[in-house]
Amino acid sequence: MNLKDQLQSDLKDAMRAGDVLLKNTLRMAISAIKLAEIEKNNPLDENAVLAVIQKEVKSRRESIADAERAGRPDLIQAAEQEISLLERYLPKALDPAELETLARQAIQEAGATSLKEMGQVMKILMPKLQGRATGDQASQVVRRLLA
Questions:
Q1: CATH no. for 3-87
Q2: Which DSSP state fits 116?
Q3: How far apart, in whole angstroms, are the C-alpha atoms of residue 3 and residue 58?
Q4: Can you give the pLDDT at residue 47?
């Protein structure tokens, strides 16, 4: 069962169980996936669905930062709960050592020696991560290794 089907199935289960938080979170994720499919004019592959879910998690992390500035603990708690629900669908995150190893391999493949070639390295590295690390985390590691 692919990830999109899993989300649909879990949405039905949440509706049957009366789990309002899970139901609403999954509906938002599924609608974001459908919007991305409409924009692309094609069904999304598994990696693209993972990217949409990661984008949703990132959006909620930004919401937490905004809620902290506004002094809204209720919004912070709701966003944290949604993040924990969405993270169930993401693959296990890479530890820093694994990420650095993949980054070193990508640097070697690209033959990069300076920060000017960072784009080439990222182009090689990002498909290898497959949702297990964010682009921001990867770019920090690559930047540190090339500096």
A1: 1.10.1510.10
A2: G
A3: 19
A4: 81
Output the pLDDT for position 41: 93
- The pLDDT, as a whole number, for residue 32 is 95
CATH number for the domain running over 96-146: 1.10.10.410
CA dist 130 and 48 (Å) reads 9
Q: What is the mean pLDDT, run by run of 10 residues, along the chain of 147 residues? A: 90 95 94 94 88 90 92 92 92 85 88 83 84 82 86
CA atoms within 13 A on the CB side of 25: 24
User: Which residues have CB under 8 Å from 23's CB, separation 6+?
Assistant: 11, 14, 15
pLDDT for position 117: 83
With beta carbons less than 8 A apart as the criterion, state whether 83 and 60 touch: yes
CB burial of 94-120 (b: ≥16 within 10 Å; e: otherwise) equals beeeebeebbeebbeebebeeeeebee
Domain-wise residue ranges, the chain? 3-87, 96-146
Count of beta carbons in the 10 Å neighbourhood of residue 147: 7
By CB atoms closer than 10 A (0-12, 13-18, 19+), residue 57 is: buried
